[in-house]
Design a protein that fits this description.
Layout (H helix, E strand, L loop, with lengths): L1 H10 L2 E4 L1 H16 L13 E5 L26 H8 L3 E6 L33 H8 L5 E6 L5 H7 L2 E3 L20 E6 L2 H11 L17 H6 L13 E5 L9 H16 L3 E5 L7 H16 L17 H12 L2 H14 L5 H24 L2 E3 L17 H6 L2 H7 L11
Parallel strand pairs: 2-3, 2-4, 7-8, 7-9
Antiparallel strand pairs: 1-3, 4-6, 5-6
Helix pairs in contact: 4-5, 9-11, 9-12
Bound molecules: glutamine.
């Protein structure tokens, strides 16, 4: 906690810091352990966690990074948060994000800019930038983020931590503010694979409050990890790994390419077979993603009407309340996506944009399926570059979107539900 207090003024990972409450919870835990209640404390007892601010937390602000939810305090915890608390974890605060998860740098937050702990002139990535910087600066041990098209994987890469996007449906989304419902997942960030696997084991699993959550059993991720004997000379013997050729092509920094190649030769050294594999639909992922995600967002965000949640404006009639709350409360990027999505779903344009994007999504999914019949694992960079300067892409949305090319492509790979516009 003292480290958090010391580093927060320069990193600004948190929209809301709950350090005093966390301290009280920790003391209470100490008291229980001292009085012999050792068994009553869970497997994550005392572990400090950061929670992305688009996940609801009971009696703590939950803004989604948006002015429109300024002052909103949900009455309940998101299921993933509840499960962490039940295991003994202590929520230390709500981490910064691009408004409603739309962005790749965390500069799109209505409240503050988070800096990259490795270099404060650079972005931490996004949209779960605060969750990544908090772990990277060791302000908390692990954190939760959300990933629709890269928002856990890309900031983890920019901040040098481990980011895990679980399969769609693996973790309940009850209490997650919806961005694009057919793609949104709750993800985990930690400073090691072990930590990330540990929290996934706690948060994963079916939840009756989220009908899209999977009822498949949750494997024991941690013991599977520990059973891999890295002291053996060839522990990965027999594993077939494909490097997606197109992800090492034009527009990708040479440093990124050489890191991936180094990792590949290390994997070979450990006994696996590594080959390049071509997935020609790679470049189609980006345009299809932005059509689909914006379309779903335009529908999902209609719930922020100035009446049900957050800030109230006083106005003479209902339309004025809607109009003024949204005009004041939503930021530029969010408005732009609502407009793009509404356009793509309009009569007359639906077939040209939305339907085609759905077809591309199927195509991408099929090409992944084909490759995974030949390889156990596919690898690619998480982003075409390392963390760039704050402000560098903020006025150039297309350049910012282009940075998502690696993660939006494989976000389509394992989605088995048809689109649900709620
Ligand atoms: N950067 C992507 C976007 O802006 C992904 C965001 C996310 O995964 N939430 O849509």
């Amino acid at each position: 906690l003292s480290r958090l207090r010391r580093t927060e003024p320069s990193v600004r990972s948190f929209i809301h810091v709950a350090d005093a409450a966390a301290e009280r919870e920790a003391e209470e835990l100490d008291r229980r352990i001292a009085s012999g209640e050792k068994d009553a404390v869970g497997p994550l007892a005392g572990v400090l966690v950061g929670i992305k601010d688009n996940l609801c937390t009971a009696n703590m602000p939950s803004t989604g990074g948006s002015r429109i939810l300024d002052g909103y305090r949900p009455a309940y915890d998101a299921t993933a948060v509840r499960r962490l608390r039940d295991a003994g974890a202590i929520v230390v605060g709500k981490t910064n994000l691009d408004e409603f998860g739309m962005g790749s740098t965390t500069e799109g937050s209505a409240f503050q800019v988070t800096t990259n702990p490795w270099d404060d002139s650079r972005v931490p990535g996004g949209s779960s930038g605060g969750s990544a910087s908090a772990v990277s600066a060791r302000q908390c041990v692990v954190s939760l983020g959300s990933d629709t098209g890269g928002s856990v994987r890309q900031p983890a890469s920019f901040c040098g931590v481990v980011g895990l996007k679980p399969t769609y449906g693996r973790v309940s989304r009850f209490g997650l503010m919806a961005y694009a419902s057919s793609l949104d997942v709750v993800g985990c960030l930690g400073s090691s694979v072990f930590d990330t696997a540990t929290i996934l084991s706690v948060v994963a699993g079916h939840d009756k409050m989220d009908s899209t959550s999977s009822s498949q059993d949750v494997p024991d991720y941690v013991s599977e990890l520990v059973s891999l004997d890295l002291l053996e000379s060839k522990p990965l013997n027999g594993l077939r790994i494909g490097i997606i050729q197109e992800t090492l092509g034009e527009g990708v920094d040479t440093g990124v390419i050489s890191s991936i190649k180094d990792a590949a030769s290390h994997l070979e050294h450990l006994g696996s077979v590594v080959e390049e594999v071509s997935l020609p639909s790679f470049s189609l992922g980006l345009p299809a993603y932005y059509i689909l995600a914006s379309s779903e967002a335009s529908s999902n965000l209609s719930r922020y009407d100035g009446i049900r949640y957050g800030r109230q404006v006083s106005a003479d009639d209902l339309n004025e309340i809607y109009g003024e709350s949204r005009a004041d409360g939503l930021g530029h990027e969010v408005k732009m996506r609502i407009l793009m999505g509404t356009y793509a779903l309009s009569a007359g344009y639906y077939d040209a944009y939305y339907k085609r994007a759905q077809q591309v999504r199927t195509l991408v999914k099929e090409s992944f399926k084909g490759a995974l019949e030949r390889y156990d694992i596919l690898i690619s960079p998480a982003a075409p570059s390392a963390a760039y300067k704050i402000g560098e892409k903020i006025n150039d949305p297309l350049a910012m979107y282009a940075g998502d090319i690696m993660t939006v492509f494989n976000t389509f790979s394992f989605v088995d539900v048809d689109l649900c516009l709620l």
